[in-house]
Design brief:
The protein is 15% helix and 27% strand. The protein is α+β, with helices and mostly antiparallel strands. The radius of gyration is 22 Å and the shape is globular. It binds zinc ion.
């Protein structure tokens, strides 16, 4: 947060320094763009193979095989969802919200990818359709589906209010993952991670740089569609903030369920291959181990 008045005087060339043009930190021109046409074509004749209702102020896990699609659908009323993704066979590999933000920006839409944590760093899913892409950025700099928030959690709530609330997205996702894997809450809690805030409308205030939220523009029937690049275990929480127009971390907001639908195409998208894990070998600058000297007796 910026102070109202600086302790330090501006240098004479302050304006000139402010006028320096920004450069994009991570230009993505070197990445092969997703072939959205072939993803779209793969929808023809697809079959819905599963669906999961996520109750309000709760979360559910779901499995999406590599090469299938899933949709998060608004039903009944405006509702925000907090999405976690793990590699289905290894929950150490999980969605990396921060690097996804660095690569694609603060808010995601069609054609953006959800990248996995280090050392895996590969696309876990690609967004293939977004019925809210008409929203763009509003006059406050707000937009939909952010990767800037973390997830509402009982620790921050306790810190700021002094009270306990047990149905924050972090707790909902922890319970859902524990039930899914048949493991204790404490064993799986560290695997719960920063989310994609599905349908949430957020930004940063221009004057103080604070994270803000406002009523989500989502309406029943809206959906966000993903293609699973690898075998995925998903977790989705229907946030206790409802449409996040006023507050979260309480039972005050009106909440609605969310629907997850899984679709299997007849054939994978043309030319598609499940991405391998990142090619960096993990040397980190250490000298490679000495190779065994050749045995002189042989
Ligand atoms: Zn939440």
């Amino acid at each position: 947060m910026k102070r109202e008045k600086s302790e330090f005087p501006e240098p004479q060339d302050a304006q000139a320094r402010r006028k320096i043009r920004p450069v994009i930190c991570y230009p993505t021109d070197s990445l092969e763009p997703p072939d959205l046409e072939s993803y779209r074509a793969a929808r023809a004749g697809w079959r819905k193979v599963d669906e999961v209702i996520v109750p309000p102020r709760d979360a559910r896990c779901f499995h999406v095989p590599a090469g299938s699609f899933f949709r998060i659908v608004s039903v009944e009323g405006p509702q925000v969802g907090d999405l976690n993704l793990w590699a289905a066979d290894d929950i150490d590999e999980r969605f990396f919200s921060g690097k996804t933000r660095a690569l694609h920006g603060t808010h995601l839409s069609t054609g953006d990818r959800l990248w996995s944590s280090l050392p895996y760093l590969r696309p876990m899913a690609t967004i293939t359709q977004d019925t809210l892409d008409w929203y763009g950025f509003d006059e406050w700099g707000g937009s939909v589906h952010d990767v800037i928030g973390t997830r509402c959690d009982p620790y921050t709530h306790r810190l700021l209010s002094g009270h306990d609330y047990h149905y924050c997205c972090h707790s909902n996702l922890t319970r859902a993952l524990a039930h899914r894997l048949g493991r204790p809450l404490a064993a799986v809690e560290p695997a719960v991670h920063d989310v994609l805030n599905v349908f949430m409308c957020t930004g940063f205030t221009r004057d103080t740089g604070q994270y803000f939220m406002k009523a989500s523009p989502v309406r029943p029937g809206d959906f966000l569609e993903f293609f699973a690049e690898i075998d995925l275990l998903g977790g989705l929480s229907a946030c206790p903030g409802g449409d996040c127009s006023t507050e979260h971390s309480s039972d005050l907001a009106t909440c609605h369920p969310l629907l997850v639908e899984i679709f299997r195409p007849q054939a994978p998208p043309k030319g598609w291959r499940s991405p391998p894990r990142n090619a960096y070998a993990g040397g980190h600058g250490e000298a490679p181990p000495a190779t065994a000297a050749a045995d002189p007796s042989s």
